[in-house]
Design brief:
By secondary structure, this protein is an alpha/beta fold. Helix content is 37%, strand content 18%.
Length: 222
C-alpha cells in the first residue's frame, strides 16, 4: 500500500534528533527502543535495499558525482526522458541556472561539483529526489543554503510535492513548517509535542515558543 500523502515537519534545536530520526527511517541506524512501522509492518522486517528504492533522500550536504548535470539528476534511474529531467529541475528551481551553464544539462561536473554554489548543489539534489519515483521523500535542511527568495520557491515546490507523496522535512526555518500538515517537536531525542501547526500554536507549548523566538525570520520569509 502507498504511504499517506502530506508534509510532516520535524522541528527542534540543533542536536534534538531530527537528522537521526531521518536516518532511522532509512534503516541506517536502529532505535534503542520502540519500533518503526511501515503500513503496520516493522521496518526491520523489510529488506533494506528494497525499502530504500521507495525513499528519496536530500541530505544537508548533497554530493555531486562525476558526470553531466543530467547524470547527476538522473542518478539511479534508467535513462529517464529529458522532459522528465527538466520537469524535476524546474520544480527544484534548478532549470534556469542549468540552462545558463556552458553545455546546459550536458555540462560535465567533477567529483566536487566545481563551479556550482552550495545552493545550486542543493537544488540539483532536490531535482534528483523529485525525479525518483519514491513514495517517501526525506529532506534534511534541504533549503539551508538558499537565499530567501529561492528558499521560498523551493518551499513551494516541497508543498506541491507533499500533495502527491509522503514528505518528511527536518528544518530550522519555520516558514514552510507553518504550512505543514503535521509537526513533530523533538527535544534531546524525544518527541515532546506533535500535531497540526495551528493546534500547537493554540496550545501555547514548545512549538508556540519556538515560533515566537523565530517570528522576525518567519515574517521575512513570508
Amino acid at each position: 500500500a502507498a504511504l499517506p500523502r502530506g508534509l510532516t515537519a520535524l522541528v527542534g534545536a540543533s542536536g534534538a534528533g531530527k537528522s537521526t530520526a531521518l536516518h532511522a527511517l532509512m534503516a541506517l541506524v536502529q532505535p534503542e527502543a520502540g519500533r518503526i512501522l511501515v503500513n503496520e509492518t516493522p521496518l526491520t522486517a523489510l529488506d533494506a535495499t528494497d525499502w530504500l528504492r521507495h525513499v528519496a533522500w536530500v541530505p544537508q550536504r548533497p554530493h555531486v558525482f562525476e558526470g553531466t548535470v543530467r547524470d547527476n539528476i538522473a542518478l539511479g534511474q534508467s535513462d529517464p526522458p529529458q522532459d522528465e529531467v527538466e520537469r524535476a529541475a524546474r520544480a527544484a528551481q534548478a532549470h534556469d541556472f542549468i540552462a545558463a551553464l556552458p553545455q546546459g544539462y550536458d555540462t560535465p561536473l567533477g567529483e566536487r561539483g566545481l563551479g556550482l554554489s552550495g545552493g545550486q548543489v542543493q537544488r540539483l539534489a532536490l531535482a534528483r529526489a523529485l525525479l525518483k519515483p519514491a513514495n517517501l521523500v526525506l529532506l534534511d535542511e534541504a533549503t539551508a543554503q538558499l537565499d530567501a527568495q529561492t528558499q521560498a520557491q523551493v518551499g513551494a515546490a516541497i508543498l506541491a510535492l507533499a500533495k502527491e507523496r509522503c514528505v518528511i522535512l527536518a528544518a530550522h526555518r519555520l516558514s514552510t513548517v507553518l504550512q505543514a500538515d503535521h509537526v513533530v517537536v523533538l527535544e534531546a531525542g524525544r518527541v515532546i509535542e506533535q500535531g497540526a501547526p495551528a493546534d500547537l500554536l493554540a496550545a501555547g507549548g514548545a512549538f508556540a515558543r519556538l515560533v515566537r523566538a523565530h517570528e522576525p525570520a518567519v515574517q521575512e520569509q513570508a
